[in-house]
User: What shape does this take?
Amino acid sequence: MNKRSDQKLGKKGGGKISRRRFSVERMTEKSGLGDLYRKVFASVSDIVVVFDTDLKLLTMNPAGVKVVRSLGVKHVSVGKRLSEALPFVPKATEAEYRKLIKTGKSSVGEVIYRAGNVARIGYTKRIPIKDKGCVIGILTVIQNITELKKGELALQKNVRRFNAITSLAREMIWESDLPGTITYVSSASKKIMGYYPKEIIGEKLYSRLFFPDNHEETKKLIEGVFSKRKEFHLLKLSAKNKNGKPAVLEVNGTPFFDEEGKISGYIGTAVDVTERETYEENLKKFELAVENASDHIIITDPKGVILFANKAVSSTTGYSPKEIIGHRSSLWGKQMPPEFYENMWRKIRDEKEVYVGELTNKRKNGELYIAEIRISPVLDENGKIRFYVGIERDITEAKAIDRAKTEFVSLASHQLRTPLSIIDWYTESLLSGDKGVLTEAQKDYIDEIHKSNRRMVDLVESLLNATRIDMGRLVISPKPVSLPKIADIVLSELAPQIKEKEISVSKIYDDIPEIRLDPDLTRVIFQNLLSNAVKYTPKNGKISLKICRENGNIVIYVADTGIGIPEKQQSKIFDKLFRADNARIANPEGNGLGLYITKAIIEAAKGTIGFESKEGKGTTFVVTFPVSRAKKPQVKKIA
Amino acid sequence: MKILIIEDEEALARVIKEKFDKEGYDSVIVEEGEEALPKAKQFKPDVILLDLLLPKRNGFEILQDLKMDAELKTAPVIVLSNLGEDENIKRAILLGAADYFVKTQHPISEVVEKVRYVAERGR
Assistant: This one.
């Protein structure tokens, strides 16, 4: 056997073949493809190396030799052991080979190797060569995948970039083929449609993603767009999200081309504009409402410069929108003293609170008018003023009417009362015999006149009180009053009627403190309740009056054994001008204002009035005043 | 006792005067506001009855003038009016009226009673 060691392998290979190499050669010769294999071996760019079972280098292809040479090894020594022939190979690799020879299994993997000054990534296959079931050698192929790897990394990076951006974007990215099957959708589909991408990919565009009654329409729409083979923008589609709720999508798309440049489908974005649609619709509603409101409305910036003025502003001020926008409301103002405006600004700008007030303004034509204004500061999330909203109402006429009403009430009260006083005093004079003794008949007649006149006086008083209540002009002057005292005065005034009807009156007055009430109005309360009790209680009836303290309140009970209030009419008994049917029969002259006025007076004093009544049995009225109105108890002097 | 009645409603003034005549008082009626002060100076009443709503001159003004006059300010003034609002009553009292009656709310006998009371107290 010729042991040829240190065989130089030139670029062309060849030379004398040792017995070992011969076995490889022989194998290829056997198959008849020897020449072909030799050509492949020589020309392939992968590194091909063969070792025997002792890890002696049998052969290496030119590509391998090139690499070895670049690492400083001048000759590739065939026949030398791995560690000698290729000293740069790590020990671990050697161990790996031994293992593979032993097990007869192949292995693949990535390796890092050097070629010249450059590190490379290789994909290696180590395959044991078997002859009749025995391992006779090991074949190693190393493919340089450095560029491939770089490309892979770049691709992975791009995919990561793409995913990051699509998950961030509000917009959903979609891709569909020409027939309309969704081939890709970004993770935003969860947010927008409620579906994960995997739930949608493969679905037809116009399927469960749209409401059933929309299918045909949507199909036509999409097919129409796709058929144009052009970019499209702002296509509005009414889709259905996973919860079955509508989602209005604004879709953009552009044709997508395959590697050959042929159109393969469409790709684009879709945004959920449902909120925006509702928002815009609502905004439009508000715009219309504000624009057409009868109140004059302006919106200004924090400095007071007008940004918006509705139609009514022009009709109150006389200035056109052009003249107003960009200017200040002082355009029609400046009629009040400076302190007025300082105070107003202090409230809205410094205290950041709503200002309500009345002021005089001036129209473009010079006409002065009175306005009620309401200015509200509008704050942003940080509490800074963003806008002011000013609402103005021309109340000149309303004020004039109010003034006229007040004057009318005043005048009417005087004008009505004067002739009534005259009749009152003249009949009184006649009845006292000032002009001579009257016959019984004359006395009787004049008495009727007097009584009738008193009724008119009462009516006028009641009407005037009611009007004042309606106009909110009931003036109350609270003073400490003794309720028992006022009650007694009223009872003494009613004494003649009480005596005539033989009604028994019982009084229970607890020791209660004086209470802050308007004395005249308190008198009205007792007059009304006690005179009603007397009026509506038949002969020999009973009236009881109790003033006491209960649960920290002062309570007045006025009970009678009179005709009572029918149950069906009890809810209306405090209504203005209301008279219960049985009351109307018993006392046709009543005016229906008494309880209305009494209730208003009691409530104005923060008290309450209620009652219990049974028709035919009697009524008990209960008036309660909170004790905060009570003064400290006075020490009564016992004379 | 001398009573000056300042009232423009003739019928009312008359019946009041007749009541006072019956009592034996000496009373004089003034129907025009402008005559009120000169007449008062001349007559030197013990009590003055004053209506507020008078033509040409405001009852409040007359009240003020009466109270500012050195001679006249001692005579108690009872305001007899049908202007019943609290503001008027308050104003009259603040200007120095001794009392205030709303005509329709009091019989004439009470008015006479009040005058007697006020005059006697003055003495």
Observations:
- Residues 1-19, 632-639 of chain A have pLDDT under 50 and may be disordered.
